[in-house]
Design a protein that fits this description.
mainly beta; Aromatic hydrocarbon degradation protein; 414 residues; Porin; 4% helix
């Protein structure tokens, strides 16, 4: 019954996830929007660390090599929800907004001992903005306002696999299919109302590899090293444009009707990451990650904006008392983390950085179960008030349901 109900929820969630908009920031105007910071299991509460995490009862999106640790005959399935309350500030005004949606759907299962497979769907980028732009009228001191609104983003469907190469060393591969559209409308009034609607479609394939190596246990400390490499890729784009103008008498005149154009490819950079996770006496887990995205090698630029190399630093710690193996309270996981992101977007020679701190708990679904209900809270900041830019402060709640099933067991008939 639980499996059938979960299947219905997962299938019904796909349509919601594909159509969602879960951001409201002017920085999503640039490129393909802002990166979706999704993490599975309890990793959000750990500052989005996970390159060296290898938990056989949790799905890990950060490193496909972790799939080698899935136990035989088990089946992992998970979906998540998040909600964000954010405040945008300039030097003179402030505006608040609330967003919430499904964050991801993922499953993982073993092919055989020491070899696992994962499948999932989640947002890759998110776009949502409403901006007024002041324009000068040529040959005049007068100005007119263009209101630009946008929504949409790219989705990511991935297939991944991980297996043990030799004892303590695992290797994984992740193939991601990126697809989606960003819809932008521009409204300007200069004698008549002019509306331009652009639907920009992008798609492509992204390849990621990962390694994890478990060091020998020393004085009750189990340490795992991890590394990932994401190859650069190009996302091809097409645009469908419709435009019309409305005169002062109310007459609507079509200028263009669903005109299709090819867009320049959007380049995703070479990315590498390293991480280290230590488990101390099976009670305290620490994770430290570093990722580098080489955006400057893509040679992309928009107007007065440019892309800069991006660094992400993350640290997380988890505590579980584990005094009694079968005690509910002894198996609650307490988490905290911090994440600093230098950002990849440079505006007015100012790099748009961000940070967040997170706290979370993992609550067992029942007394003798590896199923967990993971809750985390994050507070963070993106952007700055310097150089007439915009600062965003946000509060985010994340809920992840993590189930461990045994779908491959066959019932015996006496």
């Amino acid at each position: 019954m639980k499996k059938s109900l979960l299947l219905i929820v997962l299938i019904g969630s796909v349509n919601i996830l594909l159509g969602q908009v879960n951001t409201n920031t002017p920085y999503s105007l640039f490129g393909l929007g802002v990166e979706n910071k999704t993490a599975t299991g309890g990793l959000t509460g750990l500052g989005n660390t996970g390159i060296a995490q290898a938990n056989p009862f949790e799905i890990n999106l950060f490193n496909p090599a972790s799939l080698s640790g899935i136990l035989p005959k088990s089946f992992l399935y998970e979906f998540g929800l998040n909600g964000t309350y954010s405040t945008l500030k300039t030097s003179s005004v402030s505006e608040s907004s609330t967003n919430g949606n499904i964050s991801h759907i993922a499953i993982a299962f073993p092919i055989k001992k020491d070899w696992g497979v994962g499948i999932g769907l989640l947002p890759f980028t998110k776009t949502g903005y409403n901006i007024d732009v002041e324009n000068s009228i040529e040959g005049s001191t007068d100005v007119y306002i263009t209101r630009v609104t946008g929504e949409g983003g790219l989705n990511k469907f991935y297939l991944s696999t991980g297996f043990k190469v030799v004892k303590n060393l695992s290797f994984g591969v992740d193939v991601s299919f990126l697809f989606g559209s960003i819809n932008q409308e521009s409204l300007a009034y200069a004698g008549s109302l002019v509306s331009i609607n652009d639907q920009n479609y992008y798609g492509g394939v992204k390849l990621k590899t990962g390694l994890q190596y478990k060091l020998p246990t020393f004085s009750g400390v189990e340490t795992t090293l991890g590394g990932t490499l994401e190859l650069p890729t190009s996302l091809s784009g097409t645009q469908t444009r419709s435009s019309y103008k409305t005169t002062s008498s109310g007459t609507s005149i079509a200028i263009e009707s669903e005109v299709e154009n090819d867009l320049d490819n959007f380049e995703l950079p070479l990315t590498y990451g390293v991480g280290i996770t230590s488990v101390i006496n099976k009670k305290i887990t620490t994770s430290l990650d570093y990722r580098k995205l080489l955006w400057s090698d893509t040679n992309q630029q928009q107007n007065n904006e440019s892309y800069a190399n991006q660094s992400i630093y993350a640290f997380g710690v988890q505590f579980v008392s584990a005094k009694e193996k079968y005690s509910y309270w002894s198996n609650i996981k307490y988490r905290a983390g911090v994440n600093y992101n230098t950002g990849f977007l440079k505006i007015s020679n100012q790099q748009i950085d961000s940070y967040f701190v997170s706290f979370g708990v993992g609550l067992p679904m029942k007394k003798y179960s590896n199923d967990y209900f993971n809750i985390s809270y994050s507070y963070g900041r993106e952007g700055t008030l310097s150089n007439k830019l915009i600062k965003e402060n946000f509060h985010k709640i994340t809920l992840n349901l993590n189930f461990v099933g045994k779908w491959f067991d066959q019932r015996k008939i006496d």
